[in-house]
Amino acid sequence: MFIKGANGGIFARSLHNEANVTPYVAGISHRLLRRIESDGRTVLGFEHVDGRHADYSPGSPDLDLLRVALARLQQAPSPRG
Fold first, then answer.
1. Euclidean distance between CA atoms 65 and 47, whole angstroms
2. Interval 6-26: pLDDT, tens
3. Contact 72, 13 (CB under 8 A)
4. Greatest alpha-carbon span in the chain
């Protein structure tokens, strides 16, 4: 499990928003397994996915993967309808 947490403020709101969009990016992003919000604190637990940071340098094979991911993301339904 990969854990993200914030103690209030803009970071907690950002995690709140991230948790709210996870149903719309199923199959593109890692799954949200746990969500705890209490006293302004937010903790999210996502499934662990083995990986590394993408290489965005010219000619990198990761650029094709990024293109495919962005195309899939464009097809995802909007949380606002």
1. 21
2. 998 899 999 999 999 999 988
3. no
4. 47
